[in-house]
Each structure stands twice: as structure tokens, then as C-alpha cells.
What we know:
By secondary structure, the chain is an alpha/beta fold. It contains 19 helices and twelve strands. The chain has helices at residues 32-42, 71-76, 90-100, 112-117, 122-128, 153-159, 162-170, 180-203, 213-225, 241-244, 265-274, 278-281, 289-294, 296-307, 312-322, 332-335, 339-343, 384-390, 395-404, and strands at 23-27, 46-51, 81-85, 105-108, 133-138, 207-212, 251-252, 257-260, 326-328, 347-351, 357-361, 407-408. Helix 1 (32-42) crosses helix 8 (180-203).
Amino acid sequence: xxxxxxxxxxxxxxxxxxxxxxxxxxxxxxxxxxxxxxxxxxxxxxxxxxxxxxxxxxxxxxxxxxxxxxxxxxxxxxxxxxxxxxxxxxxxxxxxxxxxxxxxxxxxxxxxxxxxxxxxxxxxxxxxxxxxxxxxxxxxxxxxxxxxxxxxxxxxxxxxxxxxxxxxxxxxxxxxxxxxxxxxxxxxxxxxxxxxxxxxxxxxxxxxxxxxxxxxxxxxxxxxxxxxxxxxxxxxxxxxxxxxxxxxxxxxxxxxxxxxxxxxxxxxxxxxxxxxxxxxxxxxxxxxxxxxxxxxxxxxxxxxxxxxxxxxxxxxxxxxxxxxxxxxxxxxxxxxxxxxxxxxxxxxxxxxxxxxxxxxxxxxxxxxxxxxxxxxxxxxxxxxxxxxxxxxxxxxxxxxxxxxxxxxxx
Length: 410
């Protein structure tokens, strides 16, 4: 048996990147939109983050070395430029329209009626630049009962069954302890924009794309939990039993917590027989995936009792020998020194101009011929003048915009 070779990935920026030459005007804020555009920045797109004079609210969320560069903001805004406009002023709107002429993508997370009031709706901008991909990141899709309503992660989690499922499993109505809706929908947005750009390469035309949080998160939740209602005209229930049982959790060993995941029929037979429990191996409730699903609470409760008889190290070694998936439970703090993440260079230290050190995460995807190193998230308005100069604005016009407050810089 041959050992697969370890692929070689670049650890320095490459001269050509996957999205080199793609310019994206990003009018989103908080996490949903900024995480989507950060993904595109990690592939080499030029992201011009367009902010109001108040700045993205996440600039002030969490600990910070410098005001305006707080923890949450740093997590979703690396590798971007910041341009600060007051779009209530006509000169700022006109400047944005000139930038639209140079852009491949405009993405925003404002409500559609607000963009229309500013003259920045999809029909206007796509008519001005037919190659533009106009991405609307909304709470709810157009034409529905909730269209135009504001949406935040907590609301979307509540509306898409997250709270219901947590309550079914734990007895407590709670949200996931992570902003799951924002981050899930961000991934939907980034792949939708990439698909639209790919189609434009073949047709030469851009288009309007709608990425609604409610529909996106509902689709995510129903992959397994539509369950019995996938079959119309039946009385089968929703909710995937294996995911909902209270016994689906890390198991307590004699000295800690461990994740153990026998999944296939062979996994279960090997585990139960070699661990010394032939009576469970012979129990028909353990015999097949169908039987285990029907009796999942008993199956997992039994597994938990078995795990409690030995130490974590014992089970890790045992499961490795019989090829049953198992892993030690990491605390969040443990991830910073996780040996695998260290080996693959997952974290990078970046210094700003004031000598502060920041810990950044690289793009988790690695490509043999494209690599963008993590760089500092921008200060508010840091690139305002630079972006406008590159777009052909003269210094007199820029100075006038700065004077009136239509433009803001450092």
C-alpha cells in the first residue's frame, strides 16, 4: 500500500490569484455580508468596503487595541479596502455611481426600499453597467409576506426552526451559541456571487441575484429535518431522530469528554464485540442503520454507559485500532494550539502600523496556484482617497467632498 504524498500549497502570496481583477463594491455590514465578501477577498477579489461615517457597527464590538478595529470586525473584514461615503449627499451618490461603472459586483444588505430611495436599486445599476452582478443580501425574498422586513441572526434562528430543535433536544428554548444564520447565509451569498460571475464569463451579461436569509437558513435546516414530511401525503413527523435525541452529545469518560462516532454497521459490530459487549452486538436494535435510527435514544445511551467505564486515552487508542471515528473534545481556547492547525499554518500574526499584533485566520480552502495572505482589516475610510484617485477623480473634487463630509478619510 502506497502512502499518499502531501500536496504542496503556497505559503506566500502568488502573482496570480483565483479572482484577480474582480472588483467588488461591498455595502454590507455586521456579519452576513462582510463574511461573504471576505471569502471572495481570500480568493483575490478587490473588496472596496463602503461604509457610512458612523462605520460598520461591528467595528465597536469586542476587545480592541485601537477603537474601530474590534474583535468581531477583524474576524470578517480582512483583505479589504475601506471607503467612507455619506450617501445622503448627492456628490457621494454620484461618486458611487462612477465606481459602479468600474465594478464587477455590487453587494448590499440594506432593505430594497432604502436602496431604491437612494437611486441604487438593481434595475438602475444593472442598466448603467450591464456586466454588473448586483447581489441583494436581504432578510426575506421579494414577493413574500415578510419582504422588506429587517432581519437579524436571532430572528432568523427563531423563524427557521433552530429554537424548536434545541428545545426538542434539551428541553430549553435557546439559540445556537453562535451566529449561525449570519454565517450560513454568508456562505450561500459567496457561492451565489461566484456562480453569477461564472455565468457572466459565458454570456457577457451580469444579473440581479437575491440572497435572502430566511429562505437560505430554512433550506439549511431542512436538509435532514424535513425528514418524514419529505414524503408528501403522509403523517410522518419532521425532525431527524439521531440529531434530536438528548443522548447525542460528547460522552463522559472516566477522566474527560470524548466524541465517539460508530456509524456503519461494521463500526458498531467491531466496537461492541471488541469492547467486550457481545450481547449488544447481537441486539437487533444495533443491527442496521434503520434499526438504530428507530431506537437511537437507547443506542446512544448504551454507548455513553460503555464509554464511562474507561479513560479518554483508552478509547482514543481503542477506536484508532479498530478504525472507529473518535476525537478528544476541544475547548475554544484549545484550538489556538491545536497541533493540526499549527501544522497547516491556519493562524497568522499580522502587525499594524502602530506595532499591535493581531491573530488572523487564513482562508481554510487551499489552492495550488492561488494564495492571498491575511492582511489587516481597514480602518474607517482608510482608502477613501486612494480608491477615488484610482477611479479618475481629481484632487479638487476629492478635497471638496472631504470638506462637505460626503467623503471621510483617516
